[in-house]
Design a protein that fits this description.
CATH superfamily of the largest domain: ATPase, nucleotide binding domain
CATH topology of the largest domain: Nucleotidyltransferase, domain 5
CATH class of the largest domain: Alpha Beta
Radius of gyration: 20 Å
Number of domains: 2
Distance between the termini: 17 Å
Strand order of the largest sheet: 3-2-1-4-8
Bound molecules: zinc ion
CATH architecture of the largest domain: 2-Layer Sandwich
Number of strands: 13
Length: about 325
Amino acid sequence: MKEVVTGIDIGGTNTVLGLVDRDGNILAGDSLLTGSYPDVADFVKAIADSVKKMKQKAGDVEIKGIGIGAPNGNYYKGTIEQATNLVWRGVIPIADMIEKETSIKVVLTNDANAAAMGEMIFGAAKGMKDFIVLTLGTGLGSGIVVNGQMVYGHTGFAGELGHMVIVPNGRACGCGSHGCLETYASATGLVRTVLLLMSEMRDNTPLRNIPPAQLTSKMIAEEAAKNDPVALKAFDYTAEKLAIGIANSVIFSSPQAVFLFGGLVNAGELLFKPLRQYIDKYVMPWYRGRFEVLPSGIKEANAAVLGAAALAWNEIL
Ligand SMILES: [Zn+2]
């Protein structure tokens, strides 16, 4: 009988599940539409059914634990707390509920910490004891590992590097503060930058023909690849703000590497080239050349499930 864990990534739109072995192979997978379960009790039942279904599909396996990555997931309490992009309000004791329904041990953390776990167990951070993972998606999430341990802090919500203030009195952030890193260095931050640059620059760009609400970071990356001046300037500006965030973070925990993950990273050298230049400019000189900034070693399509599974392998066993 093969030992596996279940990795579950709870997202605003989809919840993705997978049975994962110790080597990071996904033996069976499933997904649910999170929003179609306004009552969290129904969602928990659907999760339990899905786990049973995957177990049947995978054949002769024993599920040793369940790992969950979720927005605003509290590692200490196994709760999802005030997650604004989920349908359930307040504090949801989701780990306990799923554990009761499935009789399998459950451990939970936030999605960015799960990504860092995935990087450590299955990805490019294998063998590293000190590293940071930044997830550049709609927002900017982060997981910090120090001495081989995830940093959770007093509240369980340590290492929210996306909410470091990079620009005093800068852009309004969803967290209620202003000038947070994620308002600049994220997919939505890049779009905000392009909208601003189009009002300041006279250059022609096809991006002007796209209604602002439909503009995406992918479109901006495509134009930047064709040397569009506005798109290139937007990447340069984003890279500078991200570099300031990384320069400040590196001082705090002295990582061996900073891994970047998420849609924005697909832009490759459009982001990494200016980023490396700005990091050299802003980081404390002694740190130059003493850490690397690298793309994640995990394929984006599997990352969330592998991260949640890595948490289970690491914590339960
Ligand atoms: Zn913020």
